[in-house]
Amino acid sequence: MTQTSDLDRVAMIVLRYMRRPLFALLAVYSIGIIGMALMPGQVVDGETTYMNLFHAFYFFTYTATTTGFGELPNGFSDEQRLWTVFCLYTGVFAWFYALGSLISLLQHPHFIQAMDRFRFARKVEGNVEPFIILCGFGDTGSLLARGLSDHQMRAVILDFDPERIKALGVRDYTVSMPGLHADASAPKHLLAAGVGHDACRAVIALTNDDDVNLKIAVMARHLNPRLRVICRSTSARHEASLRALDNVRVIDPFEIFAQLVYWAIARPELHNLNAWLVGAHGVELGVPVTVPRGDWILSGYGRMGHWIERCLKAHGVGLRIIDPEVDPEMAEEGAVMVRAHADHSALVTAGIDDVAGIVAATNRDADNLSTLLSVTELNPDAFRIVRQNSHENQVAFDAARADLVLQHSLTTARRILKLLISPLIQELIEWLAQRDRARTEELVTRLQTAVGEEPPHLWSVRLVPDEAPAVTEYLGAGGEVVLGALCRDARSFPEGLPCEALAVRRAGQPIMLPDENFPLEVGDELLFCSVHRVEPLLQATLHNPYTLRYVVTGVDEPRGYVFAWLEERLWRRRSTHDSKGHRPRP
Questions:
Q1: What predicted TM-score, i.e. pTM, was given to this entire model?
Q2: 20 to 30 Å CA-CA from 561: which of 171, 308, 443, 586?
Q3: Can you tell me which residues the record assigns to a coiled coil (predicted)?
Q4: Mean pLDDT across the stretch 483-495?
Q5: Is domain 276-421 in CATH 3.40.50.720, yes or no?
Q6: CB burial class (10 A; 0-12, 13-18, 19+) of residue 324?
Q7: Domain residue limits, the chain
């Protein structure tokens, strides 16, 4: 339906803008053909000849293409030649008018937009691979699209800024990612993007306007109730409305930022594990940052600053706040609040000399970088955590050499990517955050043994006939498969593959860090962390019944009808000799 309406819109625009030029050409040629048929020709045998309509049409047809076959079917009279000259010049002006109108049409924004929508709808409709609808292509959307591309996941992108859609055309993505300049909250554009397509897996709302994100989520839920929706929101009012909707996940970038700041300060081993799992640059597993103990200074007390204060104080971390709009009289007893920008004097007033570190979390990169310079001069030993707002300022933040740089658009993109690729991994991290450090350190040791120094590869599989036919058939026949047996290497039995099963989801309930004797059931969803080469090996076990039986029982069964028949004959012969008390020949 969307393609048809877009095609109709293109046709209407063409007819509207080319109507006058086409009528002008039609009028010039009609008058020329009729006039040529009426012009007297040469006198033959005392009678004046006339050109019939077919010959006149033929003459004007090849004359319009400047072919010039000559005067056909007979030589022209002076009247006919004069009429021909008149029609030729008139036709030139008519063609110039038509070509100019055509060029103007091709440059008209409405025509370009209609053609873009038509081509976009055709690409989406012809897509058979699973894809994500990404609404908003700013910093977060761009980083998320890069992550999806790295995981071979397709996306369809909508953005209201035409320059961002133009930039999409020069990105070197490994998969097709068509984009459209349009209002993503309009139902017709969501339909054009494939919200009702069978291959659509989720809608991600990442615009900078919370009202627009809410509208996108509501429209998507009405257009396709089964579709999963992930929505960015920084407003408490919008979050309450979104959480009331079914199958909608709310992502607050400020909450994520505050959570990461707390992990870096109070749970560095968990922060290190999380950063390693999401592939953060330069992070080595088992080597967390060393953060000193003590009070902290928070520069910036906006929405993100309130989240950071709430998170740190809930876990007993002392905080001193610097912000030009804070009211010191509203401070609790014993709390330090400085109403100023985080310059030298404000930092000295807040007690920069004896703090463990500072979190520069304003919404202006220049102010955050300036604060880092002042802290470096006043207290070089202070741990510096800085918020990066724009991805374009990456070079400056790299040069600042802060102890920890957190870009909220990047952290949001990584959180959403985890929800799309391996939703169990975020549940595992939050589960570990509620346990003691020993559980995290134990998992880190296991991952170091399994993966080593190679980058981690997270992937999930469900024990269903489409994804694991051999396992489901074996379990359905009454067999038993434990997790440790499934992870054995069929090439060097009974050694295990370099991978770790991090979690299992059964009947909607997650089971974290299962042991190797954990019995599997049909319908389980397994989350693995391994090196890249392990997934195809384990996939072979999941799909090949002979490989599965071998890693489970250690017996390499014969394959094919002939070998199975010979094996059965040999087994019966041995059974017969054993029953008679004879020993079979070797």
A1: 0.76
A2: 586
A3: none
A4: 88
A5: yes
A6: middle
A7: 2-107, 127-251, 276-421, 435-553
Contact yes or no for 320/336 (Cβ under 8 A)? yes
- Tokens for 250, please give them: 């709310």
Q: Do residues 130 and 154 lie in contact, with contact meaning Cβ atoms separated by under 8 Å?
A: yes
Residue 562 has pLDDT above 60, yes or no: no
- Of 206, 207, 209, 202, which is closest to residue 229 (Cα–Cα)? 202
Give, in degrees to the nearest 5, the angle at Cα 152 between 151 and 158. 100
**Mean pLDDT, residues 178-186:** 90
**Is residue 320 a contact partner of residue 326, using CB atoms and an 8 Å limit?**
no
Q: Which of 322, 325, 296, 329 is nearest to 311 (CA)?
A: 296
Give CA torsion, residues 424, 430, 432, 436, to 10 deg: -170
Say if residues 493 and 549 touch (Cβ distance below 8 Å).
no
Could you tell me the end-to-end alpha-carbon distance of the chain, in angstroms, rounded to an integer? Answer: 74
Count Cα neighbours of 579 within 13 Å in the Cβ-side half-sphere. 6
CA-CA distance, 263 to 431, in Å (whole number)? 13
Contact call for residues 359 and 308 (beta carbons, < 8 A):
yes
Q: What is the mean pLDDT of residues 221-241?
A: 88
Fold that domain 2-107 belongs to in CATH: Helix Hairpins (1.10.287)
Phi, psi of 40 (to 5 degrees): -70, 135
Helix or strand holding residue 298 (H, E): strand 296-299
Bridge partners of 383, per DSSP, are 357
The average confidence (pLDDT) of the chain is: 85
- Give the class (CATH, top level) of 435-553: alpha beta
Pick the CATH number of 127-251 from 3.90.1150.180, 3.30.450.40, 3.40.50.720, 3.30.420.40: 3.40.50.720
* Contact (CB, 8 A) for 459 and 467: no
Task: State residue 523 phi and psi, 5-degree precision.
Answer: 100, -10
Q: Residue 487 and residue 516: Cα distance in Å, rounded?
A: 9
pLDDT tens sequence across 352-370: 999 999 999 998 999 999 9
Q: What pLDDT, on a 0 to 100 scale, did the predictor assign at position 44? A: 80
Residues 541, 490 contacting (CB under 8 angstroms): yes
Specify the pLDDT at position 4: 47
- 279-320 confidence digits (pLDDT tens): 888 889 989 988 888 899 999 988 888 889 888 888 888 889
- Quick one: tokens of 351? 């007690």
Q: Check whether 1 has a pLDDT greater than 50.
A: no
